[in-house]
Amino acid sequence: MAGCPDIRRYPGFAAMAALCLTILYVPLAVVIAYSFNASTSLTNWGGVSLRWYADLFTGVEAPRFRAAAWNSITIATLAATASTIIAAAAAVAMVRGGRFRGKGATFALINLPLMVPEIVTAVATLIFFSTIGLMTGYLTILIAHITFCIPFAYLPIAARLEGIEETFEQAARDLYATRAQAFRLILLPLMTPGIISGFLLAFIISLDDFIITNFVKGAGMETLPTAIFGSVKQGIKPNILALSTVMLTVSILFVTLSYFVNRLGQRSRA
Amino acid sequence: MDEVVAVRRVVKRFGAFTALAGVSMTIGQKQFFTLLGPSGCGKTTLLRCIAGFEDLSEGTILLEGRDIAGLAPNLRPVNTVFQHYALFPHMTVARNVAFGLKMQGMAPGPRLKRAGEMLELVHLSAFADRLPSQLSGGQQQRVALARALAPSPRVLLLDEPLSALDLKLRQAMRVELKQLQEETGITFVFVTHDQEEALTMSDRIAVMSAGEVRQIGSPREIYEAPVNRFVAGFIGETNLLPVRVASFAGGMARVVLPGGHQLTCPAAQTAPTGTPHVSIRPERMTVVPPGSGDLDASVERLIYLGTDLQVLARLADGTALHLRMQNSARATPPGAGSTIGIAIEEGAARLLAD
């Protein structure tokens, strides 16, 4: 458009873009590429092979990874489910509850975990668990994950809910639906894309978490990120690259899915 | 005629803002009743009070003699057509129309049959399996009507349902709505800010402004016998002439027009407050030779309107007024700057209450 300068003509645009992309994505590309390396070396290319992927299932560390993966997946599923339910309830209260005292403060409270440095949450959570005498392990990881996943589940659900006009529920009430029926038959189906999106996001956040998990997991308990960290401490082997690539793929898959579910919902509403 | 809805001294406040300041009216059986007024006059708030979406601050609303205060919307035998239809986007047209019946506990067989009948009534049988987003605005409008009528409510509330449609469709829907109301025999309470809509469809109109009812009457009464300046000015075009009241008794008044000519005219029941005015519609005055009419005025401008000519004139005291003359070969339009006489038709001037 005339009068609206093309961003590509800004001085230094190309160089800046190239620099950012390099720093962000070249390391990732290297990890992915070398996960298919046939050689044991991290630096020398020995041809294409899937041996490190096979090693994940059959190698020395396979039992450890398998246990960690099981923990990660079950914790992510449970934490995402619980936090999505809590977040959906919070979103309905915030968006449909009208004006109430302390609404701003409530909003801040729900979203605070996004702003608090994770290390602080990790320390605080550990102190809390040891104070109340809860043995660290699977349960403490799960509780901690449910807590910090809530804002991630909350945001897409609340955004979705804000886009749903209140007249739909009023129309249902007008047509003889009780409050519960109006929620179940009208609001809930319309919210569903936001709920799925929130669930997927919470799942990925839980699956990825390292800092808090590492603090509250206790001895002998591993999730994938802590297991990877444990292995790396003894030197990086190519099987870690393969495991990282698997996790990256799962993450990208879920986030993409979350994006499309959200868009699908918006289209059906138009 | 039995009354279906009785609104008694209803007050509705939102914080410091008073949306309804003591509104009373009765709505009769099988009436097409219109709440007419500018935006912010409280007409939609009153509709929402009847539907049950707002609690009353004061007063009562009776539905067939029963006080419905505190009754949830789903317990009121009243259905609403919303301004933007609010069709459930995830349900087909047929399921939308059957929703109210389902909530009332009707079995799937009969309720789908009834939904089919309702869709036939609004000429949309072919669209039963579509989603609302696949319909045009006018079609969505008719689905909303069918959905609200399906449970046979005692009263159908319509919240500016035609405002989102384009002009052609709006005019067609007016006729269709009126027909639908006559066929179903259901009382319609229709909210609009469009006076033409109100005049063409209504049996009775309540004109509202600033949270108060300014006049209730038939379209003819509202147009031809407005009681105050607001109603006279809001419905159609009019001229408001300041007058002196010589005598006032029994709904008739003797007034002195600017220029000294006296006129006997019908008046509102209450004596005017403030500066008295008469209202005269532009089409109820004729141009006559100077000195032979009720008023003398100088012509400022002629505006060509096709079927009519509009004459903008000014009285000696500076009061502006406009009148209409038919664009025919028999009438010679006065030239701009010329002095004309203006004759007021018998009974056309009305003394207003304020």
Main features:
heterodimer, A: 270 residues, mainly alpha, B: 354 residues, alpha+beta, Rossmann fold, OB fold (Dihydrolipoamide Acetyltransferase, E2P), 2 domains, 6-stranded mixed β-sheet, 5-stranded antiparallel β-sheet, 24% helix, elongated
Description of the molecule:
The complex is a heterodimer of chains A (270) and B (354). Helices cover 74% and strands 0% of the residues of chain A. In chain A, 32% of the residues are buried. In chain A, helix 2 crosses helix 11 (238-269) and helix 3 packs parallel to helix 6. Chain A is an all-alpha fold and 270 residues long. Chain A is globular and about 70 Å long. Chain A has helices at residues 13-34, 51-58, 62-96, 103-111, 118-132, 138-162, 167-174, 179-208, 211-216, 224-233, 238-269. In chain B, helix 2 (93-103) crosses helix 3, helix 2 packs parallel to helix 4 and helix 3 (108-121) packs across helix 4 (137-149). Chain B folds into two domains: 3-225, Rossmann fold; 237-352, OB fold (Dihydrolipoamide Acetyltransferase, E2P) (Beta Barrel). Chain B has a six-stranded mixed β-sheet with strand order 6-7-8-3-9-10, sandwiched between helices. Chain B has a five-stranded antiparallel β-sheet with strand order 16-20-17-18-19, with no helix packed on it. In chain B, a hairpin with a 3-residue loop joins strand 17 (295-304) and strand 18 (308-315). Chain B is elongated and about 75 Å long. Chain B contains eight helices and 21 strands. Chain B has 354 residues and is α+β, with helices and mostly antiparallel strands. Chain B has helices at residues 43-51, 93-103, 108-121, 137-149, 167-184, 195-201, 219-224, 229-234; strands spanning 3-14, 17-28, 32-36, 58-63, 66-67, 78-81, 155-159, 187-192, 204-209, 212-217, 239-242, 244-249, 252-256, 262-266, 277-280, 285-288, 295-304, 308-315, 320-326, 339-344, 350-351.
